[in-house]
Fold Kinetochore protein Nuf2 N-terminal domain-containing protein.
Amino acid sequence: MSKFEYPMLPRSDIIAILNESKIATVYEDNLINPNPDFVSDLYTRLLIHLDSLQEDPGQIEFAALEQLENPDWHRDSVRVMNLYSKIKELVASLECPKKFTLKDLIRPDRDRTERFLGTILNFFLHKYVTHFRFHFYSSFF
């Protein structure tokens, strides 16, 4: 059974797509030496851009934190786990050959980060082209 595989996007393409689409301003050093804050912010922006964060994430976190005895102690962990869950689900649905783990958020690795960004951006490009074609052809009817 053959399986569709999307091309690995080179770092320069990842940077160009993110910058030109105004998802985020990214420099090569951001991908060569990714840090948790940068990666979390970038994944959040990608999810928002792909409409995968339909509800206000702050509202969800607040509702979850209300259930805890000392909510201030858990604020960051709830936010990280929410983001982790969404990204893991997205990457799995795109059939990425690598599994997204919590370590990919809290101790990001250059190669794995580029793999996941490439996977998500390939989907983004496919979604954009499909959307454009639909509107282009529907304008004739």
